[in-house]
Amino acid sequence: MINNSLLIGLLTLSSLVGLAQTPAKKRPINSKDMYRLQTISDPQVSPDGKWVAYGLSTVDTTKDKRNTDLWMVSWDGNESVQLTNTPDGESKARFSPDGKYISFVSARQGATKGQIWLMDRRGGEAKKLTDLKTDMDDYVWSPDSKKIALVLRDPDYADSAKTKVRKPYVLDRYHFKADMKGYLEKGSTHLYVFDLASKKMDTLTTGNFDETSPVWSPDGSQLAFVSNRTDDPDRNQNTDIYVISTSKGATMKQLTTWPGADNNPIWSPDGKRIAYLRSTSSGNFLMYDQPVLAVINRDGGEPNLLSKTLDRPVRNPRWAKDGQTIGVLVQDDRQTYVGQYALADGKFAKVVGGNRSFSELEALSGGNWLTQLSDPQTPAELYALENGNPRRLTHVHDAFLAPLELATVEGFTSKSKDGAQVSNILFKPANTSTNKKLPTIFYIHGGPVSQDEFAFDLTRQLLSAGGYAVVAVNYRGSNGRGLDYTKAIYADWGNKEVLDILGAADYVVDKGIADPDRMGIGGWSYGGILTNYTIATDTRFKAAASGAGSSLQLSMYGIDQYTNQYETELGAPWKNTDKWLKLSYPFLKADRIKTPTLFMAGEKDFNVPTAGSEQMFQALRSLGIPTQLIIYPGQFHGISVPSYQKDRVDRYLQWFDKYLKPKTL
């Protein structure tokens, strides 16, 4: 017979065991979680295939910035090692081909320019290898590990005065400004070779042309690289593949002659061929285009266009170690999958796909690959891809995801007024009743030539956690559906895309998902531009948030970085004024807009300058439509300061809550 005290003890123990087995209750994601999210970047496989180095970016809330340190994970996934831990940040980790060193770039010890540092894999502190006086864009080890090829920018002598007052910008280029870079004076990027033993640097190229993307031939005798050597490279995108001997004073040889773009050269393991990406179009403006995988002999000649009939963009070409196949990432209808081409017969095989997104590709022996993979519930992690099966290597985001309750994500296809079939993605708050109509936000992607995929989407997850259904629309102009679908909006902005957005809105209303009286719309960049086009076309949206957008397109000529696009696609404003005015209808017909709209922009944005948001804000303010303008100090087109990123999402939710949620909620 059990006495009372023993019974109480057993009951208490039973209760504790039950508590231990009960999983912690999860909560909706919120904007503060943005500070906890880490980002993996630039994975590199060691020469022996046993380790993968990568960058891991974290938020330093005290300094309000992101900082990247270097890590390694073993190929079996059992061991993870942090290589650096400094406030200066490190990037571009590279293994020396002999496996003895890991190099990286950092502006440590108060340096104003990034330098190459060497870390001996046997142990010890990293040592600074270079003392560069100018900006380094890229570097790559020679096959014998004795030299490093560098891409360096010409020095900016105008900014070397003893006082802090910069000399005036002297501009005479056709393309005279660019986002993040600012005003563009004369100056180019050139190739150099650094000898590790002597610490001497030889100049390979000079002149007024840029040379980028160097890759060593397997025997170390040549570099392949990319350059546009037309009379005025600012006026076209006619890049070609060149090769040059690595001896001082060598002359370069042009391999490709396509009038469009040739980029991303990669040598075959035997050194006999070079794979690269070639534009579909031979024109001088290539935004509405998709890269084609090409292979050319090392001496030139007619290339073999392996993916010409695929009608999908391919990227990240990588030779398999045996040189018999080339792996690629393929963008296709809301996903990016891994495929490969056989050199013998040109046949294509899909290696692995599904409703997810692959974003990196590096070759290992035996036909295996390193890749990076994200799905709607998981931020990108590193995976080993063995016989077509992904095996997870990193678990960076486990702690981030553990307490969170995320939106459910599904795809749907809508039909536009003109009959177009459009692929979309729907985010619904967790634990939502299936028969409850929700306030709904259409958050529109930029580009326009990009696509929303079945990948982890932080912004849409945060909006959905606010109680909203969130819709991502792959309107015409997006990629992943073929070249004709992408080019459908050429010189016809704000027409078919708006039809596609409205068609998606009709769908979610008809299906009882969206409350038709509580729909909002927003986006950044071309997503902001389409927000403006949509609210000037239809009044069904009760709130809008337009970020980094424009409407009076005529006023963008000369103040942003797209002059070449404008003159090619729309014609010069003084010759084709009617076309420019037609595409400016959100501003010129602003009195049609009834939607309360929040406008946002980065102060230093040269991609879509603040004028585009300022003009629309002023127009709605004059018309008495509720509006507000937010300018993020010191920011370019992409908002990079963590507190500003959080602020943007908070303001989205505050604005939409004000107009889309009844007072009683």
Overview of the molecule:
- One of its GO terms (biological process) is proteolysis.
- There is one protein chain.
- It contains 11 helices and 40 strands.
- With about 675 residues, it is of the alpha+beta class.
- Among the domains are: about 45-135; about 405-660, Alpha/Beta hydrolase fold, catalytic domain (Rossmann fold), CATH 3.40.50.
- Strands 33-34-36-35-37-38-39-40 form an 8-stranded mixed sheet, sandwiched between helices. It has a 4-stranded antiparallel sheet with strand order 2-3-4-5, with no helix packed on it.
- β28 (about 355-365) and β29 (about 370-375) form a beta hairpin.
- The protein starts with a helix and ends in a 5-residue tail after the last helix.
Question: How much helix is in the residues?
Answer: 10-25%
Low-confidence runs: 1-19
- What is the C-alpha radius of gyration, as a whole number of Å? 27 Å
> What kind of sheet is the major sheet?
8 strands, mixed
> Could you say what the CATH architecture of the domain at 405-660 is?
3-Layer(aba) Sandwich
Within CATH, the superfamily of the domain at 405-660 carries the name Alpha/Beta hydrolase fold, catalytic domain
CATH topology of the domain at 405-660: Rossmann fold
Distance linking N and C termini: 57 Å
User: CATH first level of the domain at 405-660: which class?
Assistant: Alpha Beta
Strand share of the residues? 25-35%
What strand line-up does the widest sheet have? 33-34-36-35-37-38-39-40
SSE class: alpha+beta
